[in-house]
Amino acid sequence: MKTHSRRSFLKASALSGGGFMLGISFLSNFKSFGNEPIANLPLGFNELNGFVKITADNVIKIMSPNPEGGQGVKTSMPMIVAEELDVDFSKIIIEQADLDTKHFTRQFIGGSQAIHLSWQPLRLAGATARQMLREAAAKQWNVPVDEISTQSGVLYHKNSGKSANYGDMATAAAQIPVPKEVKLKSIPDFKIIGKSQGNVDLAKIVTGKPLFGIDTQVKGMQIAMIVHPPAFGLKFKSIQNEVAVSKMKGIKAIFPIKIFNEDYEKTFFDTTTFNEVVAIVGNSTWEVMQAKKALKVTWQPIESYTQNRNMLGRKIVEKIPAGLEDTIEHKAKLAERITQPATVRRKDGDVETAFKIATKIIERTFNAPFLAHNCMEPMNFFAHVTDEKAELSGPLQKPEFTEQALSARLGMPLEKIDIKMTRLGGGFGRRSYAHWLIEAALISQKVKAPVKLLYTREDDMTAGIYRSTYSAYFRAALDADNNLIAFHVKAGGTPESPLYPNRFPAGAVDHYLAEDFTIDSNITVGSYRAPRSNFMAAAEQSFLDEVAEAAGKDPIDFRLALLNRAKEKPVGKNNEYEPERFAKVLELVKEKAHWESIKMTKKLGFSAYFCHDSYAAHILDLEVKDGTPVINKVWCAIDCGIVINPDAAKNMAEGGIVDALGAALYGKMTFTKGVPDANNFHNYRMIRHNEAPKQIEVHFVKNTLDPSGMGEPAYPPVYAALANALYKATGKRFYNQPFSDNL
Amino acid sequence: MAKYSLKINGKTQLIDVDPSTPILWVLRDHLNMPGTKFGCGMAMCGACTVHLDGTAVRSCSLPVSAVGKQAITTIEGLSANGTHPVQKAWLEHDVAQCGYCQAGQIMSAAALLKDNPNPSDEDIDNYMSGNICRCGTYLRIKEAIKAAAKK
Predict the structure, then answer these.
(1) B62 contacts in A (CB within 8 Å)?
(2) What 3 state SS string does A280-344 have?
(3) If residue A238 lies in a helix (H) or strand (E), which one and from where to where?
(4) A158 touches chain B (CB under 8 A)
(5) Given A132, A502, A623, B73, which residue has the most CB atoms within 10 angstroms?
(6) Does residue B2 sit at the A interface (CB-CB below 8 Å)?
(7) CATH topology of domain B2-77
(8) A40 lies in some domain
(9) Residue A358: inside a domain
(10) Which CATH number fits domain B85-150: 3.40.50.920, 1.10.150.120, 2.20.28.160, 3.30.200.20?
(11) Residue A200 lies inside a defined structural domain of this protein
């Protein structure tokens, strides 16, 4: 057993009516979000939150602090607490905590970090509560605490034969000082972690119980919808037929709202496509939908402008150009820019000399379009704003950041704002940018009533915040022995760069250069499942397949040799990945798929990627029938450290594979004169049942390392596994997404 | 506005709405039955699937005026306590991720099994292709349907 000091993030208190509550702060373990250090952490966190509650009548409740959007944290986070607390997981109650910036930090979904960052604090919370219960029992029974054991929520003293359930000791435990040190379980003693537990909300899901934000119903609640400009590059001017539409059945009010004030300094998650939109409020959804169709609004072109943004402490100036943008123009600009020098982000060795002496040079360019998130639950939020307070409820990924933005907009202090988190009908990054929450609040404030704002599918798909469109150029140099001696990557995007300069094959090649660039645009973008990795993995892993082929080497062996090089004699600094762990997933998937015995007969694609502190490798087996890819099987190997909830983790990997196949084959958002060309599922193609792989086999590397990301790492390598298998089946390389456009 | 008497989950419900109102919004807004989900509003995603006299239909595109005497079954009325074989199979296979599309998936699956108690993989693919799941739980859905077929 390891001993851990509590530092200052645990605090206990008595519950009214008996029992106790142990709170925890995540601050001590709060590292960073993405690559950006977090500045200005919100509070000091010396107070408790409601993490573990045990009442005198033995009801054990564990609060799940993070929003649940399908990644399974509402099940897996309490599992970790329950493990150390030593309770029967099936007998405890799990509740979604409200947004509580006083007591929780990092109460959000993003970056596959929920488990990674809270692993230790969650264990400590469970272990501390257990320790306090033991001390309370020792005191009451007048025996040494070391003689008190626990099993499934019961305290035992073997010598005297005494026993008590946790509830019996809970009130007394509240009087025990929080111990300075607690012992954590040894990993081999885990009883809950590593054993599959069903999704705690599933019984409600399959019976249609209200769980999602869109299900909110409150007495006197009105329905609101938004009319936003039909094209990027336009803004609100005036409403033409307000009076006529106001008279339509069930319609209460029509008015424009401004989402952010002009002088507001936007932060990371304040991306808003249209700052001024028209709100329609009425009695029922269908009536408001009819009014929305009938309303005529005059729009006008935007001027180009700049905005200052505080990106988690890093100040930037964003340039937003005027104009109605076209996909043809986006592609032409990227194609031109990718040929020019860009900003150097990493340089090892002497790249140009290496290319001069190379025997073979391979150069390729890869492209990907904008993607819409298309969460199945369209954006929505409930708000009831009065002069005294603001009560909100709904699905969002970054509640604590959104709350700050709302506080600034309403001029209302944080303590008067209450945000309840509902289950998310998908997030994938889209629900990090909660302009719709502010819209709902402003509408409620104006009509002085509780309001549920609902986006139609068309609003959801056309109001922006997409995955950027990207381009990546690669150049590889091989020597006479077909060794990779130089590697050059130049990547850029409109408007975001996808580059990760310190990832594989950086560290494995003597001469390495990584550059990037961005192109301004008024199309808004944001995080999209495995941000940037989703493109870089696709491009790089397709390219390496081609390089391995040019070198006359097996694609897995080729990468393993590079990883071995990175392990034995790493090049440069700041390599993000651990070569040994990376190599293990390659070896595992190779073994499980029987790669050596099937690679000559089947059309296989291989790909592997590191992101979110985890490693994933896939082998994909397909055939192409009448121009349509039929995916027979995907083998997947993942190293995400200790797997908390294996079947749920498997589900995440399977889903990530299916989702990525859909985006790779069909996903695209294009524009004509600023208007999104797709607005619903009839013209934005999503992968469907019949297009999913027939079989997916998921294998986890068994180790005792702290858990790392699981919601995203399986996703990025799928694209290239597919592209590389399609090459085997068709003889054609796939450089441009979506692949079905070129099949 | 017009008055309708609808048979929903075995109960008669009286409502007064515009005849063009889709059943989806009658259920969600007027009868406080939010189990049936809004996904696209044009019968392209299947999230709003209900049964009309036992047949799967997309309630977002079914005006209340077209229902007449036909019986509507929603996810709330598929079984008394989540005991329909499809619901049980969903639990056994821990199908859901975000769970938003699953009511529609379950209603489609239940209708499929009613017509075709022993569907092949291809039958399942064909029947279920109208239901989108962005989380990508299709393989588990298929396994759950096959398990439910055996019950």
Answers:
(1) none
(2) EEECCHHHHHHHHHHCCEEEEECCCEEEEEEECCEEEEEEECCCCCCHHHHHHHHHHHCCCCCEE
(3) strand A234-239
(4) no
(5) A132
(6) no
(7) Ubiquitin-like (UB roll) (3.10.20)
(8) yes
(9) yes
(10) 1.10.150.120
(11) no
Give the rounded distance of the alpha carbon of B75 from its chain centre: 6
Same domain (yes/no): A290, A361: no
What six digits make up the tokens of A581? Answer: 């762990």
Give ipTM to 2 decimals. 0.98
How distant, in Å, are the alpha carbons of A24, A104, A311, A377, B32 from that of A401? 20, 13, 11, 21, 32
- pLDDT tens sequence across A400-417: 889 999 999 999 999 999
Q: What is the residue extent of each domain of chain B? A: 2-77, 85-150
CB contact under 8 A, B94 and A423: no
Q: Do A285 and B28 touch (CB under 8 A)?
A: yes
Confidence band of A178 (pLDDT split at 50, 70, 90)? confident
Residues A424 and A354 in one domain: no
- Assess if residue A688 is contained within a domain: yes
Helices A579-592 and A555-568: angle between axes, nearest 10 degrees = 160
Size of interface A-B (CB pairs under 8 A): 194
Instruction: Tell me the Cα Rg of chain A.
Output: 27
Angle separating helix axes B102-115 and B138-150, nearest 10 degrees: 40
Write the pLDDT tens digit of every residue in A487-528: 999 999 999 999 999 999 999 999 999 999 999 999 999 999
DSSP A445-478: HHHTS-EEEE--HHHHHHS--BBPEEEEEEEEEE
Q: Does any CB of chain A come closer than 8 Å to the CB of residue B97? A: yes
Low-confidence ranges of chain B (pLDDT < 70): none
Q: Please count the other Cβ atoms lying within 10 Å of the Cβ belonging to residue A330.
A: 22
Distance CA A66, CA A73 (A): 7
Tell me the residue range of the domain where A728 lies. 328-371+466-742
Looking at the structure, do residues A539 and A559 belong to the same domain, yes or no?
Answer: yes
